[in-house]
Amino acid sequence: MRTSITHRFVEFVPDVLEEGVLYVSLEYATAVHRCFCGCGKEVVTPISPTDWLLSYDGESVSLDPSIGNWSFPCRAHYWIRKNKVHWYGDMPQGLIDAGRRRDKKAKAAYYATQATMPSKKFDPKVPSKSSADLPGDRKGLASTIREWFKGGK
Ligand SMILES: [Zn+2]
Fold first, then answer.
1. Residues whose Cβ atom is located within 5 A of ion ligand 1
2. Same domain for 17 and 74?
3. Nearest of 62, 61, 26 to residue 46 by alpha carbon
4. Which domain holds residue 41?
5. Is 60's pLDDT higher than 80?
6. If you measure from the C-alpha of residue 76 to the centroid of ligand 1, how many angstroms do you get, rounded to a whole number?
7. In what order do the strands lie in the sheet containing 77-81?
8. pTM of the full structure
9. What is the pLDDT of residue 102?
C-alpha cells in the first residue's frame, strides 16, 4: 500500500503503466493508474461531471470521489488527495469532519424529537415579542385618544 504517488500529464496513456503514477490525459478526460495496493490492476477513472473530478493545484492532483476497486480481488478503497493516497481506514480529515458534522446533525435531530424543549423555547419568543409590540401600539393609540380627549376638555 503506497501513501504517496506522482502524477503525469500525458496525451496518450502508455501501454505499460508505472506503479505509483497517476496518468492524466486531459485530451481524453481520463486518468489511469495501477491499483495503489500493489496488485497491479489497471484502474481507469473517467473525468466527467458524473464520474471523477480531477483537481490540480499546480503541484499535485486530487481525484474525487474515492476510488473503490470493488471488482478487483484486492477490493482496495482509497482517496487520491494532493498526490497522497488516503486509505479507507485512514480517512482524510475532511471526511472525518464531515462525518462528525453528520453525527452532530443526527444528534440534534435526535434530541429535537426526544425533548421538544429546544424548539419550544424558541416558539414563545416569537409570539411574545409580537404581542409585546401590539399593546405598545394600543397604548400609543390609547394615549393619543386620551390626549385628544384632554385637549377636547
Ligand atoms: Zn489492488
1. 35, 37, 39, 74, 76
2. yes
3. 26
4. 6-95
5. yes
6. 5
7. 53-56, 61-68, 77-81, 84-87
8. 0.59
9. 73
